[in-house]
Design brief:
Helices cover about 50% and strands about 5% of the residues. It contains 13 helices and 3 strands, in the order H-H-E-H-H-H-H-H-H-E-E-H-H-H-H-H.
């Protein structure tokens, strides 16, 4: 008899269970176990959401339902066996499915993990459903931070018509040189190095975190939702799109049509257009831009890039 995780499916088992049909009793026990596993998975995901990460739940619910059915169609977690003994005491110590001693010794938790891994790794009915993943940017030093994002900053700066150093300095300020990035409850980076918030126009992933905002020059903490990207490259691309599609920044036209912006002029434009609430936002970015440490790292990057590549 097929297992369903729909509560309405229990009605079809009621008559057989009342008549003490062995097959109906087994199916009822499996049904209850499948529902229990699905509720357990839902509770685990709800706990994750409380810790700060919002996710789209449609596919997750489908995944949980498939896992619970697959798990209980195999050995299960042992709950169905306990229920069967309660519903049919004369069944003794018999299990729903006879299994060798070595198989029976496998712990329910290990069986659960095995089913979850098989689905994630491509086995089973959900093999074609992609598992969401994000690049996890974890620079070990300031130099590593600059070296990693420099190629992305160069491409973005070319589209915006300014100096890549300005973008690197802004990202350094927003993330504490990569050490204070916006991260989900699992610790994975959002790849949002520019603190772009997720308003109603944003349809992608988002993370809710505490942030420092300024009102009339006074700093205060508040919860806000920020955009999350699969990779640094997509984060930089969206940063450019965000600025160029917002008229208040005046960056929509091609750089050749308005002339190149020096780094200092660029960050001043961001400040005056209200990119951040910090009244010293542009000043702080320029301080990083003019630091000897950043200048030296950028010089090293350019020197290495100029060295001819040999076989």
């Amino acid at each position: 008899m097929p297992i369903s995780t729909d509560f309405a499916g229990l009605g079809s088992l009621k008559a057989g269970a009342s008549a003490n049909s062995p097959e109906a009793l087994k199916a009822t026990a499996r049904q209850f176990e499948a529902l229990f596993v699905q509720m357990m998975l839902k509770s685990m995901r709800d706990a994750g959401a409380v810790l700060g990460e919002e996710r789209k739940t449609d596919y997750e619910e489908m995944f949980d339902r498939e896992v619970s059915m697959h798990l209980t169609q195999q050995k299960g977690i042992g709950l169905a066996d306990v229920m069967l003994r309660q519903l049919a005491p004369d069944a003794g110590s018999a299990s729903i499915d006879a299994a060798p001693a070595a198989t029976a010794a496998t712990t329910p938790l290990r069986r659960f993990h095995g089913v979850a891994r098989s689905h994630v790794n491509g086995a089973g009915a959900l093999a074609d459903i992609p598992t969401p993943a994000r690049e996890d940017f974890r620079p070990g030093s300031r130099d590593e931070f600059v070296r990693k994002i420099w190629p992305f900053a160069e491409r973005a700066a070319e589209r915006l018509g300014t100096e890549p150093k300005a973008l690197v300095a802004q990202a350094a300020l927003e993330t504490g040189w990569g050490q204070k990035q916006i991260r989900g409850h699992n610790g994975v980076s959002s790849n949002n190095l520019f603190g772009i918030k997720a308003d109603q126009r944003w349809s992608g992933d988002r993370l809710a975190v505490s942030t420092l905002e300024y009102t009339n020059g006074i700093a205060n903490r508040q919860m806000d939702k920020f955009r999350a990207y699969p990779s640094l490259a997509e984060g930089f691309d969206d940063y450019v799109d965000f600025l160029q599609t917002n008229p208040r920044y005046g960056l929509g036209e091609q750089p050749g049509e308005r002339g190149e912006l020096k780094g200092a002029d660029y960050v001043e434009r961001l400040q005056s257009a209200g990119y951040a609430t910090d009244p010293k936002y542009a000043e702080k970015i320029q301080s990083i831009m003019n630091s000897d440490r950043l200048e030296m790292t950028i010089r090293d990057i350019k020197t290495i890039a100029d060295v001819p590549k040999t076989l």
